[in-house]
Amino acid sequence: MRAMMLEEPGTPLRAVDMPVPAPGAGQVLIRVHACGICRTDLHIVDGELKEPKLPLVPGHQIVGTVVATGEGAGRYAAGERVGVPWLGSTCNTCRYCLSGRENLCDSARFTGYHINGGFAEYAVADYRFCFPVPAGYPDLQAAPLLCAGLIGYRSLVMAGEAERLGIYGFGAAAHIVVQVARFQGRHVYAFTRPGDIRTQKFARDMGAVWAGNSDELPPEELDAAIIFAPAGELVPAALRAVARGGVVVCGGIHMSDIPSFPYEILWGERVLRSVANLTRRDGEEFMALAPLIPVRTEVKSYPLEAANQALDDLRYGRFNGAAVLVISDPAEQDRLV
């Protein structure tokens, strides 16, 4: 099968031919139709996340069809369309798993980090951590739901009942979250790189009531803010923007160092918290909610072999919404398995 391989952090992915993986016990083999590109992929490729399996096939927003199953993987049959997210497996026995916090599992393994992911024609996944994909979504539009949507949804839940919600960094996750927030009757204020007029217009088009620069205050105090941009200096900025009792949620897996800030901007029972990974419950809730809104994903597609270009375009903010690799046509007869 064709795949894009990371051999060393800080180097471009390399196009390779490799054997189609065989599903083990409890696994499904998936013919990948599309795979979203996430900022986490960029952090892995750039070496900011330090412990990937190497060599590695990245990609954790996988949409495809099941073509074979291993022993005991009975939930899905051949031909069913599934999605594979970042959380690839957990131990199911640690104190986190036993208390409904499997996203913090001591032994969690992640798709496209510890497990080869979806920048390839085929991938294997633990069937227990796959989700049925809502029928109304084409593959390209479904792929961003698997991480941008899920982490965005978890971040929104962590923000509580906030009526006035700020979002710092308006990329793949934010353009989904704003739709969910609007559906819930919230008002969204979007913050972008200073002077990024294109993205500010995109945020307003997606439903934000205001869009401006990340170094300015919104026209009114916020009840909560979510930071998706991996820039630590946005933490003090968001704390200054939220009212007393407000919540600031850091929604990314990696962020640059947070600068020191005066206690007075945290005082007043403001809360600063992070979001780590996702749970299967997040996936089940969000995948049921998305078609009701309905969430609309804006995507820029790339062929598999253009994965390096897609990562570079993400790095420099050259598109709105989400980037998705097109791997194979679901109507194409399976030629390898």
From TrEMBL:
Every Enoyl reductase (ER) domain range: 10-325
Source species, domain of life: Bacteria
Keyword Methyltransferase: no
GO cellular component terms, semicolon-separated: cytoplasm
First-tier enzyme category under EC: oxidoreductase
Tagged with keyword Nucleotide-binding: no
InterPro entries for this protein: ADH-like_N (IPR013154), ADH_Zn_typ-2 (IPR014187), ER (IPR020843), GroES-like_sf (IPR011032), NAD(P)-bd_dom_sf (IPR036291)
One MF annotation (Gene Ontology) recorded for this entry: metal ion binding
Pfam families with a match to the protein in the record: ADH_N (PF08240)
Catalytic activity line of the entry: a primary alcohol + NAD(+) = an aldehyde + NADH + H(+); a secondary alcohol + NAD(+) = a ketone + NADH + H(+)
SMART domains: PKS_ER
UniProtKB keywords: Metal-binding, Oxidoreductase, Zinc
EC number(s) stated in the UniProt entry for this protein: 1.1.1.1
Cofactor(s) this protein requires: Zn(2+)
SUPFAM superfamilies for this protein: GroES-like, NAD(P)-binding Rossmann-fold domains
Family note: Belongs to the zinc-containing alcohol dehydrogenase family.
NCBIfam families noted in UniProt: adh_fam_2 (TIGR02822)
PANTHER family reported for this sequence: ALCOHOL DEHYDROGENASE 1-RELATED, VACUOLAR PROTEIN SORTING-ASSOCIATED PROTEIN 11
Designated name of the protein: alcohol dehydrogenase
Originating organism: Desulfotomaculum copahuensis
The organism's taxonomic lineage, starting at the top: Bacteria, Bacillati, Bacillota, Clostridia, Eubacteriales
